């Protein structure tokens, strides 16, 4: 009976500690507020994250990568926005069109459309009396790496700095790199990879020849064709290339790359940014043990570990801590 009581107390204490740990992992030192932001295309479902106990020094505008993403990336941004809050900045992010009530359909957007959307959000922020927009920083990840430089190059709104995470350079090159790395991970042979890339070239040709969706379906070598919306989205953005926008940027850029990126050729990205941006304005950071998303690389390779880390410990075991630290430092923390 004595041992049973001790065992029960031990398990109870263990559950209390586990509960406290999980609670800590999901409590963030910041204040989130939901907002509707009006634009010329409708309204956007947005989240503003503000510092706690200190005056905001400026705003950081978050620009998503590919896919139907909500304002917080299903909570995945929170470990990072907490760091921005600790550094004294308010972050603004919003659900893509067609997601969480935002007007429109994100698959109807070109990169120019996305850039115009960002500009309108910043113009809205600059009119808000309770937002300090003295410093405006743009943060973009992955596909957002074609949007952020475009906004900065257009110079329609005053931008202080760019933070670019895992950005690509050229749409077609990125697609080929991603396909090659994905097939390598699946254990495909060089011959199989070559065959798949040849099929990709055939699809690119159909896109460049401006074929209709029915023509694509009739001629594609894919077993699972793209949806009509996705086909039109790729057609609009196939020629995306960051070089011309980089040529017109004259503000500081922090380029944050992952050492285990399977989506983007980071060597190509680093080479292009180093070529077009002066040494005085460009700082490059490579995060170790990081996947494209800046999750820990070893965690990202397992759906089970990703789910466990997301549910139980997103601060410490999901998002790479070196990446979070760099986010804090990059905005002057």
What does this entry look like structurally?
The protein is α/β, with parallel strands linked by helices and 333 residues long. It folds into two domains: 24-166 and 240-330, 3-Layer(aba) Sandwich (Rossmann fold), CATH 3.40.50; 173-237, no CATH class. It has helices at residues 2-25, 78-86, 111-126, 144-154, 171-185, 190-208, 213-219, 228-237, 243-246, 266-276, 297-300, 303-312, 314-318, 321-330, and strands spanning 31-39, 42-50, 59-63, 90-94, 136-141, 161-165, 253-258, 282-287. Helix 2 (78-86) packs parallel to helix 14. It starts with a helix and ends with a helix. The model has no long low-confidence stretch (mean pLDDT 92). It comes from Enterococcus ureasiticus. Pfam families: Hydrolase_4. This is Serine aminopeptidase S33 domain-containing protein.
How are the SSEs placed, and which strands pair?
Blueprint: H1 2-25, E1 31-39, E2 42-50, E3 59-63, H2 78-86, E4 90-94, H3 111-126, E5 136-141, H4 144-154, E6 161-165, H5 171-185, H6 190-208, H7 213-219, H8 228-237, H9 243-246, E7 253-258, H10 266-276, E8 282-287, H11 297-300, H12 303-312, H13 314-318, H14 321-330
Parallel strand pairs: 3-4, 3-5, 5-6, 6-7, 7-8
Antiparallel strand pairs: 1-2, 2-4
Helix pairs in contact: 2-14, 3-4, 5-6
């Amino acid at each position: 009976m004595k041992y049973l009581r001790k065992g029960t107390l031990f398990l109870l204490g263990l559950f209390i500690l586990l509960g406290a740990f999980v609670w800590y992992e999901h409590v963030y030192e910041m204040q989130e507020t939901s907002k509707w932001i009006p634009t010329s295309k409708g309204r956007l479902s947005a989240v503003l994250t503000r510092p706690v106990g200190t005056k905001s020094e400026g705003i950081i505008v978050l620009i998503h990568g590919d896919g139907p993403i909500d304002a917080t990336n299903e909570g995945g941004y929170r470990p990072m926005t907490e760091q921005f809050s600790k550094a004294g900045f308010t972050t603004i992010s919003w659900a893509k069109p067609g997601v969480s009530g935002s007007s429109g359909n994100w698959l109807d957007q070109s990169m120019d459309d996305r850039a115009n959307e960002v500009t309108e959000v910043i113009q809205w922020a600059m009119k808000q009396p309770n937002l300090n927009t003295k410093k405006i920083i743009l943060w973009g990840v992955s596909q957002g790496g074609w949007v952020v430089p475009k906004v900065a190059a257009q110079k329609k709104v005053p931008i202080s700095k760019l933070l670019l995470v895992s950005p690509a350079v050229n749409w077609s090159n990125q697609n080929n790199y991603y396909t090659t790395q994905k097939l390598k991970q699946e254990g495909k042979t060089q011959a199989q990879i070559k065959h798949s890339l040849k099929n990709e070239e055939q699809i690119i040709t159909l896109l460049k020849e401006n074929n209709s969706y029915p023509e694509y379906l009739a001629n594609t070598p894919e077993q699972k064709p793209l949806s009509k919306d996705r086909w039109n989205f790729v057609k609009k953005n196939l020629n995306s290339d960051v070089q011309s926008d980089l040529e017109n940027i004259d503000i500081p850029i922090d380029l944050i790359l992952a050492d285990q990126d399977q989506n983007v050729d980071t060597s190509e990205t680093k080479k292009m940014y180093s070529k077009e941006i002066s040494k005085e304005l460009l700082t490059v950071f490579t995060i170790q043990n990081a996947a494209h998303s800046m999750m820990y690389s070893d965690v990202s390779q397992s759906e089970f570990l990703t789910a466990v880390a997301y549910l139980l410990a997103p601060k410490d075991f999901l998002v790479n801590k070196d990446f979070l630290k760099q986010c804090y430092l990059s905005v002057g923390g």
